[in-house]
Design goal:
4-(cytidine 5'-diphospho)-2-C-methyl-D-erythritol kinase activity, transferase, about 270 residues, ATP-binding, alpha+beta, Alpha-Beta Plaits, 4-diphosphocytidyl-2-C-methyl-D-erythritol kinase, four-stranded antiparallel sheet, Ribosomal Protein S5, domain 2
Length: about 270
């Protein structure tokens, strides 16, 4: 991550999607409503990106049919794993489906930056490299199927707070991104690429929440963990494994050691290639 001459932080992130997430449903009807349930429903006591997505879409196209949304919140809130952004993207897709031909894919992509820096990549839900403010999405080919363990030590971290404390070197010309070639389905190629890069927000998050350092250390001790990083601005951390089965075994061990953490194992990969 760098800071451009105009002052904003430029994202440079490799994004992949796990097979775990919230559920968003829409019953098309007059009006607009949202019902939230699930283990993390109570944590959503303020604004919600599902409603924000609906309002932004309606402001652009007043004739849209909206209706009643149902959000089952199974991902922790303010956790750095893009749960809210994925919910917003799902809402836009559902609105498009309920209004055939009115909200096009291009229109949804144009609305995404108004909702968050990673909503655009969540619209496709496929491995990609995001740059700029997140609005520049470049597809990644050949992302290998592998396993991941996600671990949240039970703290919330504000992305705005983390970004405010990030002080990368300001420069008038950021170096070009290294070319991201086709991974050709090879796990070792992915590990080689990702292993040479870091999350600039990791030390910031660890200062804001010391539990982050504990989670990273616990993940590094897991048998078979090939890559351990903070996810986004945290506080969720992740470890990548060669196979989903290895990730499941590791998650079971970690859950025994840390029963109060939110821990899950899942698969990473390109859903379009499955």
């Amino acid at each position: 991550m760098g800071r451009r001459a105009d002052g904003f932080h430029e994202l440079r992130s490799l994004v992949a999607f796990a097979g775990v997430g919230d559920t968003v449903e829409l019953t098309p009807q007059d009006g607009l409503d949202l019902r939230i349930e699930g283990p993390f429903a109570a944590a959503l006591d303020g604004g919600n990106l599902v409603m924000d997505a609906a309002e932004v879409a309606r402001a652009q196209l007043p004739s849209l049919t909206l209706g009643r949304f149902r959000l089952v919140k199974t991902l922790p809130v303010a956790a750095g794993i893009g749960g809210g952004s994925a919910d917003a993207a799902a809402a836009l897709r559902l609105i498009a489906r309920a209004n055939e031909g009115k909200l096009t894919e291009a229109a949804a992509v144009a609305l995404a930056p108004r909702l968050g820096s990673d909503v655009a990549v969540c619209l496709s839900s496929a491995p990609a490299l995001i740059t700029g403010r997140g609005e520049i999405v470049t597809s990644v080919r050949g992302f290998p199927t592998c396993g991941v363990v996600l671990a949240n030590p039970g703290v919330e971290l504000s992305t705005a707070d983390a970004m405010a404390r990030l002080t990368p070197r300001r420069s008038r010309g950021l170096p070009a991104m290294p070319r991201l070639s086709d991974f050709a389905g090879e796990f070792d190629k992915l590990m080689d690429y990702a292993g040479q890069r870091r999350n600039d927000l990791e030390p910031v998050a660890a200062r804001l929440a010391p539990e982050v350092g504990k989670a990273l250390a616990a993940l590094r001790r897991l048998d078979g963990a090939r890559l351990v990083r903070l996810s986004g601005s945290g506080a969720t951390c992740f470890a990548v494994f060669a196979t989903p089965r290895a990730a499941l075994r590791a998650a079971t061990v970690l859950a025994q050691d840390q029963p109060d953490w939110w821990i899950t194992a899942s698969m990473l990969g390109d859903p379009k290639a499955q």
